[in-house]
Amino acid sequence: MIRYWGRRGEQIVQLPLEPAPLAADILWIDLETPTADDERAVESLLGLQVPTRQEMSEIEESARLYRDGGALVMTVVVVTGVADKRPTRADITFLLTSDHLVTVRYSDPMPFRTFASRLARHPDDNRTAPAILLSLLESFVERIADVLEIVATDLHGCSTTIFYEGDDPGPDQERPDLRALIRQLGRRNRLLAILRESLLSLGRLLPFLRQGADGWLKGGLSSRIKAVARDLASLGAFESQLEQEIGFLHEATLGLINLEQNAIIKVFSVAAVLFLPPTLVGTIYGMNFAAMPELQWKYGYPFALATMVLSAIVPYWWFKRRRWL
Q1: Does 165 share its domain with 299?
Q2: What is the pLDDT of residues 294-318, one digit of tens each?
């Protein structure tokens, strides 16, 4: 799908596909899951080489940040699917010239879905292609901040569940499902890994953009780049803090699981010890030797039962006195 955006008076609006707009009327071309015809149309219109999906997925920095003729080609990693609770990483490529911006993507992250309203609210901040690029980057940084806040809220809930719930559960209160907590922490760690990669790729893009588009950054765009860089630095520090908290909560959850398992083993061990003396007494009096005085004794059976009960009570009393129970 191809979308053209350009100026109409004081507004930045989406241009109709028919008749095909002129290059002079276009500020931004958005290619979402482009076909070969879409790529050829953009290449013939602007004289730019649109990278393929395979080229966008290459991980070396020289393949993600480079100059192609008069255009800057920049590929960044973003997170998608957070609202669907299936976060995944996606690559987005920006092709920037002094007059045009082309975005190539094979996903639909939220900043793109809400960017039309941003253009309508702030037309003065998006009068040039570099300004639109800065607005897109600011939208992605804001989205990362929102997702980090969601992760922080979830981790606060996990911490409350681990350390405050289930201490003295009532008859209708269940103990927290620690295995579910581990899965939840694992999902949040995966999300943080994508956000970390996104922050890293955006942090690499800004110096390249500042250096490569120095002559295009007019009207306060340089100060906006500096503001985005400061936001990225603060979000990176916050992400590192959340990563450490996830590690701590994961270790704490595993520790509680080990304690529960030890408590279960302890119950079985104590039960085995308590029943061992009565079993010994019952085994002795279960033998059928002829020379056993208690066999002909009137009170032999009650005596054996009392001995078994007493042999169970004495170890139990000793364990309680030693505070082993």
Answers
A1: no
A2: 777 777 888 888 888 888 888 888 7
